[in-house]
Amino acid sequence: MGLEENRYLRLIGEVTAAGGGRPRHRAWPALEATADGHLVLAYRESVDHHVTPQGVVCTTRSTDGGRSWSPPEPVAAAPGLISFTNHGMTRLRDASLLLPVIAGRRSMDGFHARGRYTRSRDGGRTWERFGPVIEFDFIHPQERGFPYGRIQEMPDGRLMAPFYGVPREASGVDRRMVAMIFSTDNGDSWTASSIVYRADSGRICPSETDVIGLSDGRYLAIMRENARNLLFRSYSEDQGHSWSPLEPTEMPGNCPALLRLRSGALLCAYRDRRDGHAGM
Questions:
Q1: How many CB atoms lie within 10 A of CB 233?
Q2: Rounded distance, CA 271 to CA 141, Å?
Q3: Contact at 8 Å (CB) between 75 and 55?
């Protein structure tokens, strides 16, 4: 598995940021630049993919533009629970970092998982106590529901983050929903939401979502769709209060990550799982 080059991307080198030692499952990385120019990488380390009730969220740091990385340091773990993160770590305008940490447990009733945020005010060297568990009444009480994707700072001062899960009324885990959640206290709590898509069938089964602001004032959400293994998109023209109907893109994959380059162009990185194309 690796990077597939095309007319937009050229691979110029590879560095292992976290590896070695006994075989481990290292996944769901998030990379952010700090105010002092360092890079902070957060990821989840465990023995398998969401099976064994364990997992540690770790961070590592690079002071030379990603050429070398410090030994990993644990940030969060919950004994007896499946602990993980995703690429949603975000540096805010005040230079603090917000990192989502999710903890869950599998049972005969499903996969109950909820998220919280922890904050660093010193560029990822230390992390504060977790904020409150993020809970909304539209999520199934026995199933998953947590933030996934980078935070957007809105013109009115709110924060907006993507969120996905299984809706309360769902009859199966193929019924998924995507929402945006909002904070009015710089990420200390998340109490408001808007629905992007709520599944009434398994025809579209969305999950992992990222969002980014566009130059014309709209917001673009790109999300994983499990039924057909395509990425879908939706737009908001009213600061995230409402969203356009989902429409498919031509990108075959999941785990989308949206980035704006210095040129102003948008880059969407995603995991391609087609036969013969496994990689990014």
A1: 17
A2: 30
A3: no
